[in-house]
Amino acid sequence: MERYEPNAIEPKWRERWAETGIYETDVENAERPFYNLMMFPYPSGEGLHIGNVFAFTGVDIFGRFTTMRGHDVFEPFGYDAFGIHSENFALKQNIHPMTLIRDNVNRFREQMKQLGTRISWGREVDTTDPGYYRWTQWIFLQLYKRGLAEKRKAPVNWCPSCKTVLADEQVIGGRCERCDSEITHRDLEQWFFKITAYAERLLKNLDWIDWSPVVVTAQRNWIGRSEGLQTSFPVEGADESITFFTTRPDTIFGVTFMVLAPEHPLANKVTAQEQRAAVDEYVSAAMAKTAVDRQQMERSGVFTGAYATNTLNGERVPIWVGDYVLATVGTGAIMAVPAHDERDFDFARKYRLPIRVVVAPAGWDGGELDEAYTGEGTLVNSGEFDGMASEQAYEAIIAKLEGNGTGERKVTYRLRDWLISRQRYWGPPIPIIYCDDCGTVPVPEDQLPVELPYVEEFRPTGTAQSPLASDASFVNTTCPDCGKAARRETDVSDTFLDSAWYFLRYPSTEFDDRPFDQERTKKWLPVDNYIGGKEHSVLHLLYSRFITMALHDMEHLDFEEPYEKFRAHGLLILEGNKISKSRGNIVSPDDYYASHGADTLRTYLMFSGRFDEGGDFSDKGIEGVSRFLYRVWDLVQRYHTQEGPGTLEGDGERLVHRTIRKVTYDLSELKFNTAIAALMEYSNELQHRPALHETEIRTLILLLAPFAPHITEELWEQAGGEYSVHQQAWPEHDEELAQLLEVEVAVQINGKTREIVKAEAGAAEEVVVGLAKESARIQRYLREGKVVKTIYVPDRLVNFVVKS
Ligand SMILES: [Zn+2]
Ligand SMILES: [Zn+2]
Predict the structure, then answer these.
(1) Closest ligand to 165 CA?
(2) How far is the CA of 495 from the centre of ligand 1 (A)?
(3) Using one digit for the tens of pLDDT, what is the confidence trace for 529-545?
(4) Ligand that lies nearest to the alpha carbon of residue 487, given by its number in the listed order
(5) What is the pLDDT of residues 258-283, one digit of tens each?
(6) pLDDT surpassing 70 at residue 291
(7) Which ligand neighbours the alpha carbon of 161 most closely?
(8) Ligand 2 centre and the CA of 441: distance in Å?
(9) Contacts of 630-635 spanning 24+ positions with Cβ under 8 A
């Protein structure tokens, strides 16, 4: 073939790959299993967008590279097809999700195939398939039996637009993670998973798992461990006391007021008659605000007219209600120490409450503070603890309260239990039955799945009940224990439960009688390499760790961390803007498949920026990458038509080995952009070669194969290579030959050569200029005047223009 025609060769090779099944990993007999996982997408109506393609291409390149290095790579794909996102889209289109999702899945599959991925299509997973969600329900039941699933009434996040409750992790900056609406709160009886029971382990393992630091930090902060003191102050003239937690027991003598969250049960109980009206008004106004407003707006509060007693100094402490204290954080009550806490300081200023310094900063003159002092220091105004350092006083005060039984050292976590009920239609029904006589009864495992019925009216009701509640044939059932009439739970479970275990299913898709086969799981898990977005840090990535740990503790798994290695990829932007539906700048890969071919798109996406940072997707850049592939094509054609064979020696041979070393290293580190740059440089060099050697050409094709799988397959065949290029061994480099090429660079002063320095070929300008400036001779010239300009010609010269 004379010319490179992507649209002619790409479909041809995809067909051949499918026919020969080279990507259908033999999961039973693989000798060197390597589980290469990408985050399965939710199949949106718009189809795959360029951001997905960016992520999946990176995973696929790594999978192809690892295959060529002799591993049996398993690279599966599936669809996170339940959930509010999919359902909201169905509502908008007014198409039943059961119809819509099937069509979307078909479209996604086709688009992924066109991308030229090495996916094992025979092991596809779809979370909406009853054969899959049967096991999602099974996991719910295991957690229930273990006491890790519990129904209880709690103040919960409510999305007024999605008309459902949401977990804390799904509220981002006070807004719904799915639809961006502001979240309100409701008191509802809901199902929770006790992820908090695993807080310490989830935190501890972060010390050793090999994950991108950005995700580790996000999880650490989200789990939010803090150590301190829990104690309580009795309410004056009442039988009640206010329990609170503080990380600063050393400041306890500085308490000048206490604040209760508006939802705190004592807020109503302790309020004095004359303050009743003011408190009621304040509380109802606070309840109408969103959590974000409560955190961001100016601090406000109202005095209850009641007092507590500071057990350490016997002082009367006024009790206030303030909405900057959240019921869901800690005990929902705080001791306020305005001198040493910024929020309390603002509050005290506003309401003219006393501010008393009890930890003196170094050099403090005894005067008033302009702002809260939150550091450590020496205790003052603190009775018997005066003169102690903060650290010492911290221990002494805890010891004293523990000694008299009024307080205890405590570790608390910011992490809340995972709220998993959803008042929606599009999810697996929670497998629970309510019986008047037997109470809450789990559906027996042999009755799974509890199938999601086809319900014509699938719209969320807004009444805190799922649309399933109006389907009598679904709701009414018999009690598995006593056989009497009973009702089914009508909420469905959170989509994030579907995705919390999907990686366990892929290697075991053929087993109908178990969620995952023990032997298979031993062979393939934990996942060797997982790549995905960091936006899932405290959602999917945290939930799936918890589910894995819980299944491990129930002896279903022999490991407790699901992913040995996790790498976060960056986000692709479009001409400087975030790609999102709301901006209306969703880019589909389809146009590029047609205009440039999948190989060009793949290579361009990986070249446009660092994989862990993302890049800018603009049309301008893609042409350069397209030219690169045409050049590779032409090089191979030239090789076939050249007169005699080229030789491989000296610099030419060194360049081959140097390129192999560079591309190999970069690929292992997911540095795709610099690997492509090295291949471009290599192909440029080959263009200048009078005759090409077989090794030069074969190396080029093999190193390029993971990035551009179709063109390399075609060129490999043309070069007489055995099918398939993707099953060839990755080229090895010779370390000695790969040593750097040195070039001599002339260093000039005002155009006259004064020195020659040796530098690595292709070194960056600042490196070579730095080397030039290190020369003693050059330094002498430079001292004679001022450098007004530096001219740099790569690998050739540095010229300093000096004026005296
Ligand atoms: Zn929403
Ligand atoms: Zn019963």
Answers:
(1) 1
(2) 14
(3) 999 999 899 999 999 99
(4) 2
(5) 999 998 999 999 999 999 999 999 99
(6) no
(7) 1
(8) 8
(9) 630/4, 631/683, 631/687, 632/683, 632/700, 632/704, 632/711, 632/715, 633/3, 633/4, 633/711, 633/715, 634/4, 635/683, 635/686, 635/687, 635/692, 635/697, 635/700
